[in-house]
Every structure is written in C-alpha cells, then in structure tokens.
Specification:
8-stranded mixed β-sheet, alpha+beta, 5-stranded mixed β-sheet, 25 strands, globular, 29% helix
C-alpha cells in the first residue's frame, strides 16, 4: 500500500464542487452547522417522542433504493436505509464519510477497504455484515431485473470478504464518482438492503423495505401516506429523536400550505414556487433552499416518430424562449440552463456560459433555419405527454406548446396520472415529454446514466458512442480541469444532436414549522429525520 492519501484527493475534489450558497432563509448559518452536529459515542439512546407529519407533493414510485429515480422516494428511503458512506454538510463543504462502514481505507487508487460497524442489524433482526454488503452491491451491479444504478458499479471488478465485518472492493481503474455512488441517499448503489427481505418479498421489496436506518417502514397506503416508526436499535447514539414519521401524499400544494399554517402538518418536502411568497410571509415556518444540482428539459423520442429527424430536434431546442418559461412556469425563480452541468458544481460549471455560445438558448431565426432542413416541411403533429408530477409540470408543457407552433409543430397534450405517465415514459411511448434530473453532486451522474446509449434512464433513446466514451474516460480522472474538458465535450455532442432541449436549473425549497428543530440542510435535497425533534 502506497503513502498517497487517495481518500483526501477524492474528498477534496467533490467538496470543491459545492460552493457555499445561501441555503437557509430566516436562520443564521451557525444554526445550519449546529443542526448537523453529532453526538459523542457512548451517549445514551434518546427516548423517542413526537410524531412528525410531512407533506410529500411529488410522485413516489418505489421504496427500493436500487430501482428508484424519484427524489421524493429518496427522501423516504434515506430514513429507512443506510449506505456504506453518507453525505454530510457543515455549512461550508459537502463531504463523504463512513456510515455503515466504521472505517474507509483506500489501499491504493483502485482498492477500497470498508470495515463495518459491529452489531448492526436490519429491521428484520438479521445481521448487517460483509455478506449483506456483497449481496446489495451485486444486486445493483448484475442483479435481475437490472438496476438503473448498475452503471455506478460498472468498474467494480471484485468484492472480497476479508472477514465477517470487512469487505474489500477492487476497481478496474480510479473512480472519481465512487464517493457519491456509495452513499445511501443520492448514490443508491451503496445502499445496503436486507438480503432476507429481498428474498422474501422479491419484486415487492419496494413496498416492504427493510434497512438498518433510524426509521422502520410501517405501511404505505396508496395515494395517501407512508408511515415510519423509530428504530430503537439504531447504531447512532441518541438517534432518532422522533417516535413516528408520516409522509402524507398530497397532490394539491395549496392544501398542504393551508395544513401547515393550521398546524396539521409539520413540513413540506418541496414548496411550490407559486406559493413561496405566502409561506415566506408566514411567521410559523422556516424556508430552506436555493438553486440545486439539477436541470429540467424537454425530451424527444429519437427512435420513432417525427423526432428521429435531428434537424427537427435542433429546431425545438432553439425555439423555446426560456425566459418566458421561467416567468410563466417557474414564477421567475429558476435559472436558465444552457447545458446539464449546474451552478453548484464548482470547477465544472461555467458562470459565463450565457455569453460563451455553448448550449441551448432562444434563437427563433436559428430554429427556423433548422426547421427548413427537416425532412417533413408540412405541419408536424407530436404527442406531448404530461402529468401533475410536480407543481410546475403541466405549466411547463402548456407554456412551450405555442412556441412549438411557431416552427410548424402541432403538439397534442395528453394529461395522465403520474403512474401512467412514468410507464409511458419508460416504454418510450411518446413524441415529447418534460422532466427534471435532481440532487446531482457530480457531472458524471448529471450526464452518463441519463444519456448513455444503452442506459435505462435514456428515455429519448439517443445513441452516441463518442459521448459514452468521453463520460467513461472522465470517470477515471481525478483532476477537475481534465475531467471538465471531457464533460464539456460530451455536453457539446448532446447539445448538437438535441435528444433534449435544455430548460432550467431549478430552486428547491423545503418548509418546516418553527416547532421543528434539528433539520440539517444538505445540498442534495435530502430530508434526514433522525436528528429532528418537535418542540
């Protein structure tokens, strides 16, 4: 083993990306840092009390961490499961620290040794040991059905069980994204699930999740609520503090705000932008948030239908007036996105991108020039699927439709329930749709899984092997400047062939009652309940 501190290199690279922003409105920065302060080992387990109720306003598909792609699902999963690593934030920097792993040693730039906490059990009473870790990692890497997060472990060559509490992971090359991948929240590839529960429930594990986290799953009532209860055997001393937690599935944001003001709920997982002024004026609530690592876009089916034509896609990309979309759909709160890499990714995001000429932007003359090159010079009819997944989803589609008409595209809006919309999207049964990728901490997760030629999240079905190679090459490089060059080149291919039309980088706001204490804001849009309490 050499003397190079490989872990510090990885940690410094990730931490440098996340520049300090104003995350919390109405509370000082010291409160943010203080909220995340841990308890000393050996402190007595806290007596849980209180029942926190949080409105969940967006779609939750599954509570299986290895298969979800929805942020609201992650916010629940994060409290049921742990990862080998966890994301922490002290008000200055994002870090990746051991979680189920008690110790994380980088023996060389390709070999990671994890020593697990002794005595940790899953909620079903089975041991969380090296065998369970191996089971979970293999389930992601090569399990059936295939996990959409399998790409995160593609470089993993060997899992060696050193002893019951020690596992060694060997990779084919250095892997810059690994610290993110192995977290139990946004990463999901490193989330450890109960092998016994997976074997018991099979495909229904997502409705019966069993982890090691601070809260146990109790029930999921369709379109109503998800109930959790405290895990009294949680390994972190003094945690959790709350006895019960309920995520109330509420489709009407105004109903959630009214419930918050009436004291019927204690928080909202996401406050819709149109209601933010009302909430900010309410003295009984605190608002947390800002522009996150995310982007929204209009996706186009490149495999069939009118948008097989690259020039028609390019026409769409330059026909959209983003400032109008921001004003009408995002209530003036979003930021125009030129490419997928977002503002929080310091070292990768270009703050001068608006004047660089890179990316997608509104230029109707350019849009019409591309439209003139399209094979079909008549009126093009396109099916645009939409759903009230979020408070802005249908507003985005309705704002964009008249812009498409300017270039001879007649978009037919089809409104459907979120579950049906997800199925249509996954089956590639659309011409157009709009969507957003959120909670990204690294350019790799911003680009590679979404647009890799054979990726399960590549809903437009775009194929470009040069893009694949650029992203794969960047995964093995730790130097930010060198990685940035490769990701910019990959983005330029994406922008040119336009399987998507870029829209915005979005602000994400959470709201909690002033009676809630201990919420630790992490710039990955998480809700960590275990340190929270009610006064």
């Amino acid at each position: 083993m050499d003397d190079t501190d490989h872990k510090s290199i990885l940690e410094a690279r990730i931490s440098a990306q996340m520049r300090r922003r104003s995350f919390l409105k109405g509370v000082g920065a010291a409160a943010v840092a203080g909220a995340g302060a841990g308890l000393l080992p050996g402190m007595a387990q806290a007596a849980q009390s209180g029942h926190i109720r949080i409105a969940s306003l967006s779609h939750i598909d599954t509570l299986d961490p290895h298969f979800t792609g929805f942020l609201n699902a992650i916010q629940v999963i994060n409290n049921i499961h742990n990862g080998l690593l966890k994301v922490t934030y002290d008000g200055e920097a994002v870090r990746f620290e051991p979680d189920l792993a008690e110790e994380w040693v980088l023996e060389d730039e390709k070999t990671h040794l994890f020593k697990l906490r002794d005595g940790v059990t899953f909620h079903d009473g089975t041991a969380c040991d090296a065998e369970a870790v191996k089971f979970s990692l293999l389930r992601v890497k090569s399990g059936e059905p295939k996990s959409p997060h399998a790409w995160k472990l593609a470089l993993l060559e060997e899992i060696e069980i050193v002893d019951p509490l020690t596992v060694r992971l060997k990779f084919s090359k250095p892997y810059a994204f690994l610290p993110v991948a192995l977290t139990g929240s946004t990463g999901r590839a490193g989330t450890i699930v109960s092998p016994a529960a997976v074997q018991k429930y099979g495909a229904n594990y997502g409705r019966n999740p069993v982890g090691t986290g601070p809260f146990k799953f109790v029930s999921w009532r369709e379109n109503d609520s998800i109930e959790l209860e405290a895990n009294p055997d949680y390994f972190e001393p003094g945690m959790p503090k709350i006895a019960k937690a309920t995520f109330l599935i509420m489709r009407e944001a105004s109903t959630a705000v009214a419930a918050l003001m009436a004291g019927q709920i204690d928080g909202m997982s996401n406050c819709p932008l149109q209601l933010l002024p009302q909430v900010e004026a309410f003295p009984g609530a605190k608002v947390y948030g800002g522009i996150e690592g995310n982007y929204s876009f209009v996706g186009m089916n490149t495999r069939k239908g009118p948008f097989e034509d690259v020039n028609l896609r390019r026409a769409v990309a330059y026909a959209i007036d983003r400032q109008t979309v921001i004003k009408q759909a995002y209530f003036g709160r979003a930021q125009q996105a030129f490419t997928p890499i977002s503002p929080p990714m310091t070292g990768f995001f270009d703050p001068n991108i608006a004047s660089s000429g890179r990316g997608h932007y509104f230029d109707l003359d350019k849009a019409k020039a591309f439209r003139a090159k399209a094979a079909n010079q008549g009126e093009v009819e396109a099916v645009y699927i939409m759903s009230e997944r979020t408070a802005v989803s249908t507003r985005v589609a309705q704002t964009i439709v008249p812009m498409l008409a300017e270039i001879g595209i007649k978009a037919k809006l089809e409104l459907m329930e979120p579950t049906a919309w997800v199925q249509r999207r996954n089956d590639r049964d659309f011409d157009m749709f709009d969507f957003e990728w959120v909670a990204d901490l690294d350019p790799d997760e911003t680009l590679y899984p979404e647009f890799r030629s054979d990726g399960s999240w590549n809903y437009p079905g775009w194929v470009n092997t040069n893009f694949d190679q650029l992203c794969a090459q960047a995964q093995g490089i730790l130097d930010v400047k060198e990685r940035s060059k490769l990701y910019n080149a990959a983005e330029d291919l994406l922008i040119d062939e336009a399987p998507i039309a870029m829209l915005t980088h979005m602000p994400i706001y959470k709201v909690f009652s002033t009676k809630v204490e201990g919420f630790n804001y992490i710039p990955a849009d998480l809700i960590n309940l275990h340190g929270m309490s009610l006064t």
